Amino acid sequence: MSEEIRISFPYKGETLTGVVKRFNKKTVTVETNMLKFRVPYSLTTPRLKPPKPTSKKRNSKKKWSASQSKDYEKSKTAAIKPLAKSAIKILHNTTMMLGDSLKLGDDEDIKKYSNLLLSELNSMYSLPHLTVHTGGKRRLTRFGGQYYGLYRTRGDTQKKYSISIFSRTAKTQNYVAPKTFLRTLIHEWGHHYDRHVLSLENTYHTKGFYDRINTLYGQLKEVLEKN
C-alpha cells in the first residue's frame, strides 16, 4: 500500500490500533504491535469500505473476425433443402424404431437406430460419415441445467465427426422421452449440416439454425405422435 492507514477496532473489551496491511473481500488485515488481525469493515474506525468487486464482464465483448461475422450472417438466413416424401417415409420408419427402443429402454437398439437415422440423413444430404454415441445420464451444468448432447470434430487432415447423446435424464435417470431425444439428435446433426452444406467454419445457434432443425424435426416427430 502506498500510504499507511491507521485504524482502531474493538477486541475483547479493549480498543486496539494498527496499520492496514491488506484489503480483503469481507475483512481488512490489520497489524498491531504484536499480532495481525482480520477485522470486519463494520468495526473499523474510521469506517473503511471493502474494495469494489472486479467486473466479470471485462472480456465479454470480444471482437469477431471477418469469417465469424460472415458465418453468423449466413447462418441467420440460410434455409434447409426440403426432402422428398419418399425420403421422409424412409426416415419415418427409422424414427419409429428409435422411439420404440427408448420406450423399451433398449440401449443397444437406441444406439443402432440413432446411427441409422443420421446415416440416412447424411446420405440424403451428401454429408460425411458421422458416428453417434448414446447412453449414460445427462450431466448437470454449473448453472443447474443439463447437457443433452454434443457435436465433436476431431483430427486435422482426416476429420472424424461424432455426436454424443445422453439416453437418461440427470435427476430421475429415466430414459429420455422419444421426441426430446429426437430433437437433441437433430439439433446436433444441424451443426454437421451447417459445417458441410453451408460451409460454415463456425456454427452458431441463430434463428436460422433453429428454423432449419425445426423444419426437419417437425417432419420426423409426426410418426412419434401417431405411435
Structure in words:
With 227 residues, the chain is of the alpha+beta class. It folds into 2 domains: 6-43; 66-226, no CATH class. The protein contains 6 helices and 7 strands. The chain has helices at 66-77, 85-104, 107-124, 178-196, 207-220, 222-226, and strands at residues 6-11, 14-23, 27-31, 36-40, 131-134, 149-154, 160-165. The strands form 2 sheets. The protein has a 4-stranded antiparallel beta sheet with strand order 1-2-3-4, with no helix packed on it. A hairpin with a 4-residue loop joins strand 3 (27-31) and strand 4. Helix 2 (85-104) runs antiparallel to helix 3 and helix 4 (178-196) crosses helix 5 (207-220). The radius of gyration is 29 Å and the shape is elongated. The termini are far apart.
What distinguishing features does this structure have?
single chain, 227 residues, alpha+beta, 4-stranded antiparallel β-sheet
In brief:
The chain has 6 helices and 7 strands; from the N terminus they run ββββαααβββααα. With 227 residues, it is of the alpha+beta class. The N and C termini lie far apart (72 Å).
